[in-house]
Amino acid sequence: MMNDDTIMALSTPPGTGALAVIRMTGPDAFLITDKAFRGKRLSEAETHTLHYGYMEDGGTTIDEVVVGIFKAPHSYTKEDVIEISCHGSMFIVQRIIQVLLDHGARHAKAGEFTLRAFMNGRMDLAQAEAVADLISSDSESAHRAALNQMRGGFSSELKKLRDELLHFAALIELELDFAEEDVDFANRKELADLIIRIKSHVLNLKDSFALGNVIRHGVATVIAGRPNAGKSTLLNALLNEERALVSEIPGTTRDAIEEMININGIIFRLIDTAGIREATDVIERMGVEKTMEKIRQSAMVIYVFDVNEISYDDLLVDLSQLPSNDIPVIAVGNKIDEISEEQLLKKMEGFKNLLFISARENIHLDLLRNKIVSMITKDKDLSDQTIVTNARHYDSLNRTHKALTDVEHSLESGISKEFFASDIRRALNTLGEITGDIATEDILGVIFSKFCIGK
Ligand code: GDP
Fold it and tell me: What is the pLDDT of residues 271-297, one digit of tens each?
């Protein structure tokens, strides 16, 4: 389905810059530009070439520009596309846009370029959404995840599985047509095997969502511990700058502070807290409650203790007081510069999974950084992992999982064919929502409206 109008937008951020790029796609992209471009006739130029010249309005020169041309179908939208690089002044940009409008282009709506790419079969829906993620990704790992998804790794696998399921769905619909004969066209054993395979794939993707989510939004990491354990010092050491208040007086860091750090491309949101200790006054108690609240909302806890102050038994008690849920805790013994190795070994004997550092003297902070990352990635290599980062996909995966479980139950209980035929249809639909094989106008509207204009 080709569009018959030609759309155009500024593709670089608005404002002053060295360069700005105006992009146009549609059947008249070359004709329209030719009317305003003094230089080579673009409709006669080769695809994937750059042309130097001037944009003009009537007889007046607006700017010196370079025009890139991409002929259908070898372009982002599979239509004729031109990109005009001009100087990055909003005055120039406005003038050029006005001239293009005068010659018959229209303003693109948000996401319309990518919508065309999708409509023209250049990419599927998961890939199109990845474009939006890619544009807004601000850390290396978020960028990698979006790029992987855009290349289609994640949806091509789902597509294959969906096609296999489609095959069975067709056979079962056929059985319904021949209901009186009571024949089975679809091999039940093979169908059951396929359901298991799809389910395990869907489960993996679902699990990856937790990781995808932290990659996108940052891992909320609480630094907790008794007053004076060295939490603020550690935070500062990790940040490499002195932002949090470091104080000699126990319990003075009462307000939770949040700072971002980037380790190996993953963003961690570090939250320093007031000490967890028996509340001695009202303010302190508020601090403690806040700490517990923060911990409950976090993805990871770094529990800091002073190896000189705390015994092995104290530590066990402290750790047991943390909110008990699935949040991973890294216990970190601080101030090892003040204790001999022998003393330390004797004191903490038998304790596994402890990390010993000196926040102030910068000892073993590299080990801590590695530990923090591996707790989150579970030592998987993020670069070749399929990671679901999109809440809509997650929702579809959940519903697919539910539908598949229902098919399994129907198969086991030998329930009537109508039921599992409808469960299979449901699974096909939810899978199709991810790959875009089933995309209602509503879904498309929501997805593409999230784009910025010019994409
Ligand atoms: P918080 O109350 O847990 O935030 O503790 P602070 O970061 O304010 O540190 C309390 C005191 O311990 C300060 O005087 C720090 O200089 C000191 N401190 C922090 N880390 C270390 C360390 O690794 N070694 C030593 N010797 N002192 C430290």
Answer: 877 545 544 555 555 567 777 788 887
pLDDT confidence of residue 256? 53
pLDDT on residue 61:
93
Is residue 307 in contact with ligand 1, taking CB distance under 6 Å?
no
**Residue 229 beta carbon below 6 angstroms from any ligand 1 atom:** yes
335 ligand 1 Cβ < 6 A? yes
Residue 233 Cβ contacting ligand 1 at under 6 Å: yes
* CA 355 to centroid of ligand 1, rounded, Å: 16
Nearest ligand 1 atom, CA 236:
7
pTM as predicted: 0.53
Distance between CA atoms of residues 395 and 210, nearest Å = 13
Residue nearest to atom 15 of ligand 1 (CA): 230
Q: Which long-range contacts (CB under 8 A, 24 or more apart) does 367-374 make?
A: 368/302, 368/330, 368/332, 369/238, 369/263, 371/330, 372/221, 372/263, 372/268, 372/300, 372/302, 372/330, 373/263, 373/264, 373/266
C-alpha 443 – ligand 1 centre gap (Å): 53
pLDDT-derived band at 175 (thresholds 50, 70, 90) equals confident
DSSP string, 82-150: EEEEEEE-HHHHHHHHHHHHHTT-EEPPTTHHHHHHHHTTSS-HHHHHHHHHHHH--SHHHHHHHHHHH
| Tens of pLDDT, residues 394-410 | 888 889 999 999 988 88
- The candidate with the shortest Cα–Cα distance to 104, out of 171, 19, 7, is 7
Task: Give the distance (Å) from ligand 1 centre to CA of residue 229.
Answer: 6
Ligand 1 centroid – CA 247 distance (Å): 8
Report the nearest-CA residue for atom 9 of ligand 1: 230
The amino acid present at 186, given as its one-letter code, is A
pLDDT tens readout for residues 293-339? 888 878 889 999 999 998 888 888 888 888 766 788 899 999 999 98
Peptide bond between residue 328 and the one before it cis (omega within 30 degrees of 0): no
Any ligand 1 atom below 6 A from CB of 291:
no
